[in-house]
Amino acid sequence: MQAGYLPRSSFIHRLNPLTKIVWLCVAGAVSFLVPRPSLLVVMLVIVAALAALARIGRPWLVFMRAALLPALAISVINILMSPYHGERMLFASYSGENRLLFHQAWGPLQLTVTAFGLQKGLLLGLRWLGLVAPAGVFIYATRPEDFAAALSRLRIPHSVAFAAGAALRLIPVLIEDIVTVIAAQRARGLQWDRRLISRARVLPVVIVPLIGCSIRRATDMAAAMETRAYGATAHRTSCYAPQFRVADACAVGVSLAVLLAGIVSRMGT
Amino acid sequence: MLKGTTVAHRFVPAASPKLTSALRIERLSFRYARRREWALRDVSLEIGPGECVLISGPSGGGKTTLLRCLNGLVPHLYQGQYEGKACIFGAEVSMLSVAAIARRVGTVFQNPDGQMLTSTVESEVAFGVENLGIPADEGRARCQAALEFVGITHLRHRAVGTLSGGEKQRLAIAGTVVMRPSILLLDEPLSNIDPGGVAEFLTHLSGLRQAGFTIVIVEQRVRQVLGVADRIIWLEDHAIVGDERASSSPARGASAPSREAAANGESRSRSGPPRLTPTDSAVEFERVSFRYPYGPDVLKKISLALEAGSWVSVIGRNGCGKTTLAKLTSGLLRPTVGRVTVGGLDTSSHAARALCAVVGYVFQNPLHALHAATVKEEVAFYPKNLHWGKNEIERSVDAALAAVRLCGQGDESPFVLSGGEQQRVAIASVISGHPRVLILDEPTLGMAEPDLEALRLFIATLTAQGRLVITITHDLELVRCSDRVVVLSEGGVCAEGPPTPILSNALVAEVFGA
Q1: Quick check: A228 and B72 CB within 8 A?
Q2: Beta strands in B16-135 (DSSP E)
Q3: CA A195 to CA A202: how far, in whole Å?
C-alpha cells in the first residue's frame, strides 16, 4: 500500500490545502449526517470519482482495501451485538419493521440477528469507510509541506505544522523500515510466522532495530535542519505556497453547501 | 557544469580582503558525551578562502567529527567535552548560533536520503531560503538559479523519493548553495552515486571551485578526488597525521592498504571454517519474473546460473531490480513466474527456515539488523536460530569476530560503535551461520581504501572455501576484483561475464551513464 503523497498533475492536486482540509471535514461530517446506507454508497462513489480525477484511483483502491477489514469488523460486531428492539442510532433512524432474522443460543451465549441490527451494522461499517475514503484522497493528493504551510496560515506555529507535515512524510519511510527489518532478521533465521504469540515473543528483535533506525533518522534530520538555518528567523517565508484561486473558492462553496444541505435535511427528523 | 559558470557569480559574496583564513581550528579536542575515547585530539588547521581541501583517512578516524566542528553541529547539536576553538571567518563557532553559521557554511551530508526534509524538489531547494525569511519573490529567483546551477531544473516538480542517488545529491547541493554560503562542506559525496555519476560530480565540483566556494570534502576514495583538490589532509586515530599539497602523491593512501591487507590475510587463514564441497551450493534462476502485488514486473524472465566458489557482482542503476534479485535468492521473496533454486532447494517449495541456513544476506544498512545488547549476542543470533550447539556457536562467533577484526569489542553494545564497525558487526552476524551463499548489499559504503582491500581478501577466503559470494554494488573497484559480473537493466540481464570485457562494453557504459 502506498502511504504518502503521490505527485500527479491534477485539478485536485492543485487545490489549496486549506480547501482540501475544509472538504475533508465536510466529508467526515456528511458521513455522519447521512441516515441511510444507500446514500453512503453514493458518497463513496463520489469520492472514488474524485480519486480517479486526481489520477490516484488505483492506489486509493488499495488503500480502501486495507480499510475494508476494520469496516467488516465494525459491521459484524454491531450486527451481532444489537439488542432485539434496536437501539437509538446517532443521526439515523431505522426503516421498516424489525424482524428476527436469525437466533441461536448456546447456554448463556445468544446470537441474534435482527433487521434493525443488520441496518445498524451496515450503516456503521459504511460510515467508517465514508470517513476513511476522503482521508485517502487527501493524503495522496496533498504535499505534506503544503499541508504544513496551510496549518501555519491558520496561526499554528510553524514548528508544529512542520512536525505534522514531517510525520505525514515519514509514514511510508517507517513502513519501509519495518519491512526491511523483518526481512533482515528473517534472513538470519528469525521465525516470523502468522501466530500472534510467537510474533509477540520475537517482537524486540524487530522493535530495537526500528528504534535504532528512527533515532538515527531523527538525528540526521535535526542536523540537516540546523545546517539549513531552521529557526533562524521568526518570520519564515514560503516560496511556493499554493494560492487561493477561484477554483478553491468554488470547491469550498460546494463543500459548505453540501454540509448545509446535510444539516437542513436532518433538522426535520 | 551546464549553465553553472554563468550564474556562479551570484552565489558567493566577495571575501573580505582582511581575512586570510576562511576556517581556522586551534588545538581542538572533542569527546562525545558518554564516550570514553576522544573523537578528535589536539587538531589545528587553517583553510584559506577559495581553497579546495580533501580530508581523508580510515573510517572511525574522526573525519565526520571534524566536519561537525566546522558547521557548528559540534558542540551545538552533538554535545560533549570541547576544548580549543574553531573559527569561521574569525568568528568562533561555539559562540555563534547554528543558524548564523548556516548562512556562511553549507553542508552536504553523506546520506542523501537523511537530509531530505520535504517531498518535492522545488520545496526542498526552497527550505533554506524560507528559513532565512527571504521574501518569496527573491526566494523563487534564488531557487531557480540554484536549480540551474546544478542542472536539475527539469526535475523541479518531481517527488524527492523518485530521484536517483546522483540526482538527490545534486538536489542537496542546490538546497545548500541557495543559501549563498561561502564555505561548502561535502561529506563522502561519492559514496551514494552510480559509477557513471562520479565523473559528472567531479565536473560539478570544479564548477563549485570556479564559483569561488571554499570547499572541504571528506572522502575515503582519495584517488578519484585528487585532481580537483588543492590539498589533502590525512586524519588517523583522531588526529591530523598529514597535510600535503595535492601535487605530491598520496603516499599514505597508497601504502596503508598493503600493510593492513597482509595483517588480515594472516589472521583469517587461521580462523576460517572448513572447506565445503563446491558442487551443491549454486544459485539458479530459470526464467524468473517477479512483481509486487498491483505493480509492474520488477524482474522479467531472468535466467542465471551462479557457480559455487565464485564471486559474482550484480550491478545496475538504482531501481533496476538488484535488491529484488537478492531477496529472491535468499527466499525472502518468491518468484511470480519461474523457478529459483539455491543449493538444490526450490525457494518456492521450501520454508524460509530451510533456506536461511543456506543463504546469508547482509543488508545495506546495519541498523536494520542490530538489536542485541552486546556484539557477541548479535553475532550469535543467526547460529542460535539455526539451533546449533552451545560450543559450536561460541567457536563460530569467535571466528566471525576475528574475521572482521572486532575481537576486542565483543562485549560492547553494537550501538556505541562507529558506522564502519557496525557494518562489520552486521557482516560477522551473518558469516557466523556459515551460509554457503553470502549476499552483501553495498558492503563498501563509506569504506576507506584499506578496508576495501581487507574486504577483497575476506571474500577471496570465502570463495576459496567453496562458498558463493554475491555483492550488490555501485563500487567499480570492487566489481573489477570479482570473478563475474551480472549487469541488470530495466528488470533484465543486459550483460554477463568476467569484469574486464563487461566493464568496457559500450552497452554497460550506457546503462551507467558513463
Answers
A1: no
A2: 23-32, 40-47, 52-56, 80-88, 91-92, 105-108
A3: 11
Question: Closest by alpha carbon to B69, among B90, B49, B97, B93?
Answer: B93
Q: Which amino acid is at A53?
A: L
* ipTM value for the complex: 0.81
Task: Verify whether the Cβ–Cβ distance B176 to A228 is below 8 Å.
Answer: yes
pTM of the model: 0.79
Burial grade of B252 (CB within 10 A; 0-12, 13-18, 19 or more): middle
Interface of A with B in 50-109 (CB under 8 A): 58, 62
Give the per-residue pLDDT at B264. 41
Of the candidates B407, B358, B347, B409, the residue with the CA atom closest to the CA atom of residue B382: B358
Distances (CA, A) of B199 to A133, A269, B336, B514: 48, 73, 38, 8
Give φ, ψ of B481 to 5 degrees: -85, -15
pLDDT in tens, A134-191: 999 998 998 887 888 788 778 888 888 888 888 878 888 888 899 999 999 999 988 8
Question: How many angstroms separate the first and last alpha carbons of chain B?
Answer: 16
Cell numbers standing for residue B364: 545495506
Answer whether A229 sits within 8 Å of B367, measured CB to CB.
no
- Residues B340-387 have pLDDT tens digits of 999 888 998 888 778 888 999 999 889 999 999 999 999 999 999 999
Strands B345-346 and B468-472, how do they pair? Answer: unpaired
pLDDT band at B421 (very low <50, low <70, confident <90, very high): confident
CB contact set of A75 (below 8 Å; sequence gap of 6+)? A121, A122, A124, A125
CA distances for B445 relative to A188, B254, B451, B511, angstroms: 21, 19, 11, 21
Is B136 within 8 Å of A238 when comparing Cβ atoms?
yes
Confidence at residue B153, expressed as pLDDT on a 0 to 100 scale: 92
Q: What are phi and psi of B224, to 5 degrees?
A: -70, -30
Whether the Cβ atoms of residue B339 and residue A171 lie closer than 8 Å to each other: no
Phi–psi pair at B362, nearest 5 degrees: -95, 115
Q: Is A233 within 8 Å of chain B by CB?
A: yes
